[in-house]
Amino acid sequence: MSTSSLQNSVVKDMALAPDGHLKIDWVESHMPVLNQVRRQFEAEQPFKGLKVTISLHLEAKTAYLAKVVQAGGAEVTITGSNPLSTQDDVCAALVEDGVTVLAKYNPDPVEYKEFLIRALETKPDLIIDDGGDLVTILHAERPDLLETIRGGAEETTTGIIRLKALEKEGLLKLPMVAVNDAYCKYLFDNRYGTGQSVFDAINRTTNLVVAGKTVVVVGYGWCGKGVAMRAKGLGAKVVVTEVDAIRAVEAHMDGFHVMPMVEAAKLGDFFVTVTGNRDVISGDHFDVMKDGAILSNAGHFDIEVNKMDLSERASSIRTVRKNIEEYKMADGRNIYLLAEGRLVNLGAGDGHPAEIMDMTFALQALSLKYVNDHYQTIGKSVLNVPYEIDNQVASYKLESLGIEIDRLSEEQIRYMDSWASHE
Q1: 3-state SS string over 211-255?
Q2: How far apart are CA 389 and CA 399, in angstroms?
Q3: How far apart are CA 34 and CA 195, in angstroms?
Q4: What is the pLDDT of residues 322-343, one digit of tens each?
Q5: Torsion (CA) 332, 337, 338, 344 in degrees, nearest 10
Q6: What is the pTM of this model?
Q7: How far apart are CA 13 and CA 415, in angstroms?
Q8: Phi, psi of 419 (to 5 degrees)
Q9: DSSP secondary structure string, 170-209?
């Protein structure tokens, strides 16, 4: 443990560190792609002498990403990206490993914001963001801290929406790689990771059966596809609601019922929102829900389920199990909200499986290196993950699985590159 990391950190209890180390060791043993990146970074030292600030869901898999970036020579400061997803034992373990940590489980909103600002006040050279909180503070409140920052990488759909809005208005002041849009992110993390982790959290929190019930999936992007697929696999009847005609047709052809939310609200036993937008379940929907309906959100912010509308309709509110709030309606119906409407798979669970985040965090680490290598020439814009990085991560994954694939011959490459003759 470095004296600096201990003195500069704010964590709940350093005595929790042994349990945190066990969690980090477990995920490290199940993250072969990130281990490969770590070996590369240890040899090349791409971040030597640099400061990196990270804002992500602060649990064991994120902790190991921080250690991999640290292994590349960086001085790392990390904070959370959601009040309910921070794990205090993991925070303590990271401090012992020399990472500065500014985070604890369920801080009040003022303290949560202070942690983000203090993490930026370390004057980092590079950032990793989740949901755009760091970037928003830099542009809206603390532009004085932009001077040292070469660029960074963004983890989520929500964050990329905010970044692109800044870029569209000509206000973005640093290059940011849209890691969420990489093939290896949305094909695997968003689909398989979200699909599994949402139901891991719902099942663990409620201890209720999914089979035979109706699950309403709000939004059929890559995360929605994963949630619907896992619900079907658990034996549920699945209803999808959408605003995009193309995705609605896709959901229909994938075998799911598609209808407006006001109709789906009458049918659902479980609801999962995955849109990145606000108020997708709100007043009129609560009015027609079944007694016992269970609401959850798998989007980044707690705005998808309109909690104000729900509270206004409730004659009483009480916590009936950890991470389950019961809203009793005036007519006697009970509607249950999981994890305060926050990201359910992390607020009420451990997040995506380690093998999934292995690929995503490898993308993060390599994208951060890409920004550092090219920040002087790539411009202040939202950037796609280069295909070479995406392909490298997938190749590392195949290698870890012992799977080999074919390669094009030189003649095949020439044929594919030619327009003149396809005989």
Answers
A1: CCCEEEEECCCHHHHHHHHHHHHCCCEEEEECCCHHHHHHHHHCC
A2: 15
A3: 22
A4: 999 999 999 999 999 999 999 9
A5: 150
A6: 0.90
A7: 62
A8: -110, -15
A9: T---S-EEEGGGSHHIIIIIIIIIHHHHHHHHHHHHH---
